Amino acid sequence: MYCLLLGYPTGLHVKKEQICSHATVCGYPISIFFIVVNEFCERFSYYGMRAVLVLYFKYFLRWDDDFATTIYHTFVALCYLTPILGAIVADSWLGKFKTIIYLSIVYALGQVILAVSAIHDITDANKDGTPDNMGFHVALSMVGLILIALGTGGIKPCVAAFGGDQFGDHQEKQRSTFFSIFYLSINAGSLLSTVITPILRAQECGIHTQQKCYPLAFGVPAALMVVALIVFIVGSGMYNKTAPQGNIMVKVCRCIGFAIKNRFRHRSSQYPKRAHWMDWAEEKYDKLLIAQVKMVLKVLFLYIPLPMFWGSRWTLQATTMNGDFGILIIQPDQMQTVNPILILILVPIMDSIIYPLIAKCKLNFTPLKRMTVGMFFAALAFVAAALVQIQIDQTLPKFPSSNEGQAKFINMMNKSLPIKAGANQFMLESFTDITSKPEQGANAIRFLNGFASTVNVTVRNEDFGDIVTNNMSKYIAVPQGNAEFLIRNNAGQVCVYNQKFGFGSSYTYIITPTFAFGPNCQEGIRPVLDIRPNSIHMAWQIPQYFLITAGEVVFSVTGLEFSYSQAPSNMKSVLQAGWLLTVAVGNIIVLIVAEAATLPDQWAEYILFASLLVLVCIIFAIMAYFYTYIDPTKIEAQFAQKEPDEKQKRKSLEMARKDSVEHYKGDRRSSDSSSDSSSDEDDVIQQSKM
Question: What domains appear along the chain, each with residue ranges and CATH number?
Answer without folding.
Answer: 22-246 (1.20.1250.20), 305-395+536-651 (1.20.1250.20), 434-531 (2.60.40.2890)
